Amino acid sequence: MSIILNVGDWSYTKVNQYIREKISEGETEFELHGVNGHRYLFAGIKQKIKAKIWGVPGLDLGCFMSGPEIHVYGNVQDACGNTMEKGKIVVYGMGGDVIGYSMRGGKIFIKGDVGYRVGIHMKAYQDKHPVIVIGGKTGDFLGEYMAGGTIIVLGLFSQHPEKPITGKFLGTGMHGGVIYIRGELDPFFLGKNLKISPITDEDLTYLKTILTEYCADMDENLESIINYRFSKITPLSHRPYGNLYAY
Amino acid sequence: MWEFIFKDSKDISGCGVSGIINVKGSLIPGDLIIKSITCQEERGNGLGAGFAGYGIYPDFKEFYALHVMAEDKHYLENFERFLFQKVKAIYHEPIPTKKVKTIKNPPIFKRYFVKLELEEQVSPEEEENKLIEMVMYINANLNGVYILSSGKNMGVFKGVGFPEEIAEFFKIDKYQAYIWTAHNRFPTNTPGWWGGAHPFSLLDWSIVHNGEISSYGTNKRYLELFGYKCTLLTDTEVVTYLLDLLIRRHKLPIKLACTALAPPFWIEIERLNEEEKNLIEALRVVYGGALLNGPFAIILAYNGGIVGLTDRVKLRPLVVAKYEDYYYLASEEAAIRTICPNPELIWYPKAGEPVIIEMPMGTIPNQKSYI
């Protein structure tokens, strides 16, 4: 049985306290209705709970969490998945700026467009490998200072069909990890010290695994998404600025 | 009490902003803007909040409404002696306020509906210049008193407190306006004082701002060349005066003025066609002193429109939505949805690209258009 809450009039503190209490009592499923701007929902939660959210959660949804699976029937605001470690956030709407900020594990799937600096400072370590999939288009500085993990941009479910798939300065300061773009990318949008290459069979296998899960969550057709040319963006060196201040 | 303002200081802040316009000129109750800005309570720290309303003084719509803040009665009397030599005040009264427990020792607030006493007939623009000159003179030279807003049929209400406290203090729920803007302040580098709260206003321009204008010094010196005096010592003040200079005095269309404040990068200019390239290059050269550096998201309002603009690398958030005749701007989507649960359209504007919403001409009295 799910815990079903209408949190419209509740402060975010009260919502979070209540959720924590219920989790400590062993509850594992939550449905939150009337969510609007409530910050830090499921912050730091380690248990493998499941949650459904209707509305627009506030900043830092699921920050520092390592376990929960959260489905959001609405848009998410800035810094969703901030420093997230494990678990999954599925967003059936759009996302704001700095989604997946310093993310170090788990998955964030977004159906629509996202704002600026998504995946900034993402990193991977041993078995930890964060993944962000964006169904729409992105703002500038995607994957800024990225050190590890994977970002996939599809550009399909966008409210701006006329715009380029990503913004400028893509991967600025990136020194690890991979960004996959569905289709071609004009090198003008690329940050410095990065290369664009076609995907390998190994890349395709990996993309298939991730996108199969994405399509299952989003109820989309995998074939029509994957049967297309993808571009791969990787850093030229893992220390692109090693000599910037020391020469 | 206000001696600190003469010391050198600057402002760095991370705040919340909200704005609403009804493009048909229908009046929006103050409750709505209060609800929107208090939804972003967490973005401020209780050291400043404010509101600007347009269309709030229909009975005095032909007069400049001076909202005045005074440290005490003595300073106010001194100010009035000066003011009444310069202008004809058709009506003046204390701005209605309410005692709020958490607001200690507020200044005195009064409003004056005035016409300038001029010896000869001048153009409306010249008249506005004279008014600005007087406001600048008073704010720079008269002790203990500041004119916080000076437009027709509009006014700014601001002070030290959280938005709901300032709203209660000024009874914002008793006003109705066709444009509202609001601010929730989180000052980190200047004292939170009553004059330093947002909106900043001159004539009917008003600005609310989230961010930090790092180029404040350059902008301030540039403005001084044109007779503007920065007296409130918070960075946002320069944005208000820059827009007055570029749009009203130099007649730049609003989009171009915004481009001067947040111009494209040179690498983007390279890719433009020859004509656009020449225009933007010229703009960057001529208005170099107006370029705003640092993170910002601002909402600008005037009699006739509302504009949202962020810095060119989007270091502060801004969300825009539309529902029927209403447009909404805010730092957070939740602040819009709390007063408009199902907008027809909701989007995150591109960095440095202004969102300009104007009413069709002829909608409101003394309407201005700068498109």
Overview in brief:
Chain A has 3 helices and 11 strands, in the order βαβββββββββααβ.
Task: Kindly describe this structure.
The complex is a heterodimer of chains A (247) and B (371). Chain A is globular. Chain A has 247 residues and is α/β, with parallel strands linked by helices. The model of chain A has no long low-confidence stretch (mean pLDDT 96). Chain A is built from three helices and eleven strands, in the order βαβββββββββααβ. Chain B is globular and about 60 Å long. In chain B, a hairpin with a 2-residue loop joins strand 13 and strand 14. Chain B is α+β, with helices and mostly antiparallel strands and 371 residues long. Classes of the chains: A alpha/beta (247), B alpha+beta (371). The interface between A and B is medium-sized, with 23 and 22 residues.
- Give, in order, the helices and strands of chain A: EHEEEEEEEEEHHE
Strand tally of chain B: 18
Query: What is the N-to-C succession of helices and strands of chain B?
Result: EEHEEHEEHEEHEEEEHHHHHEEEEHEE
Percentage of β-strand residues of chain A: 15-25%
The overall pLDDT of chain A, averaged over residues, is: 96
Number of separate strands of chain A: 11
What is the share of helical residues of chain B? Answer: 25-40%
Range of helix content of chain A:
10-25%
Shape of chain B: globular
**Which structural class is indicated by helix and strand composition of chain B?**
alpha+beta
In the CATH hierarchy, what is the superfamily of the domain at 94-235 in chain A?
Glutamate synthase, alpha subunit, C-terminal domain
**Strand composition percent of chain B:** 25-35%
Topology of this protein?
The complex is a heterodimer of chains A (247) and B (371).
Chain A: E1 3-6, H1 12-24, E2 29-36, E3 50-56, E4 66-73, E5 86-91, E6 107-110, E7 131-134, E8 150-153, E9 178-182, E10 194-198, H2 201-218, H3 222-226, E11 230-235
Parallel strand pairs in A: 1-2, 2-3, 3-4, 4-5, 5-6, 6-7, 7-8, 8-9
Antiparallel strand pairs in A: 9-11, 10-11
Chain B: E1 16-22, E2 28-29, H1 30-38, E3 49-54, E4 64-70, H2 73-86, E5 87-94, E6 108-116, H3 124-141, E7 145-149, E8 154-159, H4 163-169, E9 176-177, E10 179-184, E11 200-202, E12 205-211, H5 216-224, H6 236-249, H7 254-261, H8 266-269, H9 274-286, E13 296-302, E14 305-310, E15 319-323, E16 326-330, H10 333-337, E17 345-347, E18 355-358
Antiparallel strand pairs in B: 1-10, 1-16, 2-9, 3-8, 3-10, 4-6, 4-7, 5-6, 11-12, 12-13, 13-14, 14-18, 15-16, 15-17
